[in-house]
Amino acid sequence: MRAAQALRALCISRLPRPVSDIFTSKPTSYLRAPHFQTTPYSTSSPQQKLAADMHPHIKRSTAFKSLDDADINHFKSFLEPSQVITDQSEVQPYNTDWMKKYRGQTVVVLRPKTTEEVQKIVRYCNEKKLAVCPQGGNTGLVGGSVPVFDEVVISLTLMNQVRSLDEVSGAFVADAGLVLETADNYLAERGFIFPLDLGAKGTATIGGNVATNAGGLRLLRYGSLHGTVLGLEVVLPDGTLFSNLSTLRKDNTGYDLKQLFIGAEGTLGIITGVSIMAPRRPNAVNVAVLALDSFELVQESFARAKRDLGEILSAFEFWDQAAAEVVHKYVSHVKNPFMEGDRPAPAFGVLIETSGSVKEHDDEKLSRFLESLMEDSIVTDGVVADSETQAKALWGVRESITEGLSRAGAAYKYDISMPVPKLYSAVEDMRERLASKGFFEQGRVARVVGFGHLGDGNLHLNIGGPQYDKEVAEAIEPYVFQWLKELDGSISAEHGLGLHKAEHLHYSKPDRMISIMKQIKDLFDPNGIMNPYKYLPKS
Amino acid sequence: MSSLKVLVPIKRVIDYTVKIRVLPGGKGVDTNVKHAMNPFDEIAIEAAVQLKEAKKASEVIAVSVGGAKSVETLRTALAMGADKAVHVETDADVQPLEVAKLLRAVADKEQPQVVILGKQAIDDDSAQTGQMLAGLLGWSQATFASKIEVEGDSLKVTREIDGGLETVRAKVPAVLTTDLRLNTPRFATLPNIMKAKKKPLAKLTPKDLGVDITPRLEILEVAEPPKRSGGRKVESVDDLIDKLKNEAKVI
């Protein structure tokens, strides 16, 4: 008994408002206001603000019922005890996003194991008008995966089975809660590759990837999920099943409804199954990292890569000096090959990956390409991985940037796309703007960092500071969105809208389109229970 | 003692990250997968190049026994800083004793003062070649090196052993084998990769060296380790304690 209590005490963190405030009925056995202690092991800082407090204009909808014991008992009538989490210390991680920026206030997490269980949950919630928040790996960066108020969290992580793999066509069908890396490992053993890769692969689930239309590191080669997803199984807001787990590559019979769910961020239904086209795993993969002096040269190297590497090019990423320095300083296990002996990072770093079927052919092509870059002084230096271990180490330099920024302090993250020539001017412009307001001098902004998928015209603009600073945030937004509007760029290339950008949608989409989106939302979800307060603007 | 000539034997092996598949028939593994330089050999090349950069060595020669594709591995060694490469070409399956005999013959030709090998190859894990070579040459040996210092006409080597660390002084000429903590091998940089193409690469055969490479050992069987039996989840700490006590019987 004592061991159990000690274990629990390790995980408890403090909420600023008593849980009992949220309920209309007197709390009983499941929902008694817990005793709180803060310990160094809390999963979120005791000072972390609630998402609701950070966005005071969002009010909990009075249309939604408040959870009570009868509801919990109903869930327990068809779910096992371990599938219904009400212990506040265990619920906490589901309330907080990866960046520790958004904190919700749910009191219950449901973890269905089958599609039928998801349907039962959703049907009940729709009848009772209980708001729900579907959640996969909870690695989203725009606050879309955690509740704002007391939305019931429906975690898909226990639904993680592979359903089938057609080894001739490559059609791969699996549960939505399957972790991306696990899916890829399963496919790797059979000679296939998952057509999506991103830094969060060890935690993100494929259902969440599809719901957010994740882009990632290999979009350049395999295309977007809108193209690679063959079919979906979705539980609609009324609990009925949209069952379209097709494995057909071509099927032009009617409106392609699955496209609506891809990128809908859980607002039109809960994805429970994914059917996707898995390409054959390449036999020969090469990774090279280059050092360049200017963004113009980065663009030149990209143009040449497309021309000289052509069909074998599978990734083209870039980062600036500030990004490399953050990794060097805060992620000690990752070594930047150009920063040996504490040399300063080059102005720009580029990672090129090639994937093909014949090693000798690819080696020859890559080696000629890299030599031409050196001879024409496009790059000042470069390294090529000689083994898989080195390849992973080089990818680490790019993939650790996000982690490094999180460790360095607070990060204001913007994921934007615009015409490639203008890409880096977003960084330079923001640096100048924040410098002119004295934020660097005052130590309120430590760095402005740019990196991303150059091949897709997608920049991750990050501003880093010691802690979240309202004035700094106001200097950044809506300035950056306005800047993008003038270039017809996107305020969210791949991270999505979630809570962060819902109100800013008009910077990238005209009103008429937004009103059609709202009609579609109302069609699927008349009670509005499915992941409310996000994605579409309120007004 | 500033003109040490260093010979570094290297081996092309299946890449350390590849999942090994035993072939049906149980006589070997699927070799149609990614290959790379044996990681301990990379460490050996790095150690030799560092000695050259510290002006303790004058020349680093990389040598490899293997088929045509071993040339790629030798080019990597050249790109890391080796000055020249020797390829002893054979498609036959060579075993540690035969390799040691071939290396002795190469050493007789090249006349190095130090031979640095990886402590073992990650495909057969024999960990014999360095030791046998020292025996055949009659040289001192210091194996599992995690630190190498040149002191006059000797090498002061810190060895990783079961109990901790042991420091020995080996008089030159000496054979060393490298352990993991000796260094972190550098990446091959583009300028060096380009220079490597112009460095000399000599080809020899076992016949040229007068060595009989007939294997003395026969592989009887290759099998995967027994599959792990599944773990189980428990619902509470009490359940865990109960199972550890009564089922696993470990407490």
Automatic annotation (TrEMBL), chain A:
Q: Per UniProt, which keywords does this protein have?
A: FAD, Flavoprotein, Metal-binding, Mitochondrion, Oxidoreductase, Transit peptide, Zinc
Q: Name one Pfam family in it.
A: FAD_binding_4
Major site of localization recorded for this protein: mitochondrion
Taxonomy, superkingdom: Eukaryota
An annotated GO cellular component: mitochondrion
Q: Name one GO biological process term.
A: malate metabolic process
Enzyme Commission number(s) from the entry: 1.1.99.39
Q: Mind listing the GO molecular function terms for this protein?
A: (R)-2-hydroxyglutarate dehydrogenase activity; D-lactate dehydrogenase (cytochrome) activity; FAD binding; metal ion binding
Q: Which family does it belong to?
A: Belongs to the FAD-binding oxidoreductase/transferase type 4 family.
Q: Which PANTHER family match?
A: D-2-HYDROXYGLUTARATE DEHYDROGENASE, MITOCHONDRIAL
| Name under which the protein is recorded | D-2-hydroxyglutarate dehydrogenase, mitochondrial
Specify the species: Gonapodya prolifera (strain JEL478) (Monoblepharis prolifera)
TrEMBL record, chain B:
What Pfam families does its record include?
Answer: ETF
Keyword terms of this UniProt record: Electron transport, Mitochondrion, Transport
Q: How is the cofactor bound?
A: Binds 1 FAD per dimer. Binds 1 AMP per subunit.
The molecular function terms in GO held by this entry are: electron transfer activity
Q: Where in the cell is it found?
A: Mitochondrion matrix
Q: Which domain of life is it from?
A: Eukaryota
| Alphabetized InterPro entries for the sequence | ET-Flavoprotein_bsu_CS (IPR000049), ETF_a/b_N (IPR014730), ETF_b (IPR012255), ETF_beta_N (IPR033948), Rossmann-like_a/b/a_fold (IPR014729)
The record's CDD domains line, in alphabetical order, gives:
ETF_beta
Has the keyword Transferase been applied to this entry? no
Where is the Electron transfer flavoprotein alpha/beta-subunit N-terminal domain positioned along the sequence?
25-213
Report the cofactors.
Answer: FAD; AMP
> Which GO biological process entries does UniProt record here?
amino acid catabolic process; fatty acid beta-oxidation using acyl-CoA dehydrogenase
Protein family per UniProt: Belongs to the ETF beta-subunit/FixA family.
The job of this chain, per UniProt, is described as: The electron transfer flavoprotein serves as a specific electron acceptor for several dehydrogenases, including five acyl-CoA dehydrogenases, glutaryl-CoA and sarcosine dehydrogenase. It transfers the electrons to the main mitochondrial respiratory chain via ETF-ubiquinone oxidoreductase (ETF dehydrogenase).
Q: How does it assemble?
A: Heterodimer of an alpha and a beta subunit.
Question: What's the protein here called?
Answer: Probable electron transfer flavoprotein subunit beta
